[in-house]
Amino acid sequence: MSLTLYFHPLASFCHKVLIALYENETPFSGEIVDLADEEASAAFFALWPVGKIPILRDESRDRTVPETSIIIEYLDRHYPGAFPLIPADPSEALEARLWDRFFDLYVSVPMQKIVTDRIRPEGKTDPHGVSEARAMLGTAYDVAERHLTGRTWAAGAGFSIADCAAAPALFYAECVQPFTSTHPNLAAYFTRLENRPSVQRTLGEARPYFQFFPFKENLPDRFRL
Q1: What is the pLDDT of residue 36?
Q2: Distance between CA atoms of residues 199 and 14, nearest Å
């Protein structure tokens, strides 16, 4: 098989790429990265010295592709499916890229700051950083609430790269700073995302790993083992 995704089933940015792959039923093999294993870690860093997951390896083109947005664009260009994730119209494509970055930078990143702070050693936590992250999430929720008025998806008429980014970001963000009771447009959008087959499949495969999520007590009951 030409494509191999190096990922971890619990990681939100990995979910983003998995959703894109499942949207178009793109054939690939998955390689779970265990950075605690010295040999596996060395092999992964040989592919991508930065050491961040996910990365996509395309043997047929001899390409190693990092960064989630670049991976999805690469798939759209070289392995297109029935559902283009980058709109053909240049203006809509720009909007999709904008909201892809929005959900990555202003929802996923502050969410991860809050999550990782919970597992820091005693005396090494960052209350000020967490407070800033929570403020950013609040701002992002408000912006998304206004943007989603009258919209089905985040950008353009169809499901796109922006929605691939939004689904895992919002799934975990709801656990650390809930929005569904305060932002009705965002909550309705999140429900549409959760009902998408590609998202359901991704979350279903992650379910055995949710026990390791630092905010697992806030997960919906259906995702608890």
Answers
A1: 81
A2: 12
**Residue 198, CA atoms < 13 Å, CB-side half-sphere:** 24
Q: What is the pTM of this model?
A: 0.95
Which letter does DSSP use for residue 179 in this model? -
- Mode of pairing for the β-strands spanning 55-58 and 63-66: antiparallel
SS3 content of the chain, % helix, strand, coil (to 5): 60, 10, 35
> What residues does 4 pair with on adjacent strands?
29, 57
Q: Using CB atoms within 10 A of its CB, is residue 221 exposed (0-12), middle (13-18) or buried (19+)? A: exposed
CB 193, CB 163: distance < 8 Å: yes
Q: Per-residue pLDDT for 1 more than 70? A: no
160: how many CB neighbours lie within 10 A of its CB?
A: 29
What domains does the chain contain, in order, with CATH numbers? 90-196 (1.20.1050.10)
pLDDT band at 225 (very low <50, low <70, confident <90, very high): low
What's the pLDDT band for 50 if we cut at 50, 70, 90? very high
With the CA atoms of 199, 202, 208 and 210 taken in that order, what torsion angle do they form, in degrees rounded to the nearest 10? -60
Answer for the pair 69, 97: CB distance below 8 angstroms, yes or no.
Answer: yes
Q: What is the pLDDT of residues 172-205, one digit of tens each?
A: 999 999 999 999 999 999 999 999 999 999 999 9
Rounded to whole angstroms, the maximal C-alpha distance in the chain is 51
Spatial strand order of the sheet with 3-7 comes to 29-32, 3-7, 55-58, 63-66
Residue 156 phi/psi, 5-degree rounding, is: 70, -165
Compute the distance between CA of residue 113 and CA of residue 129 in angstroms, rounded to an integer. Answer: 8
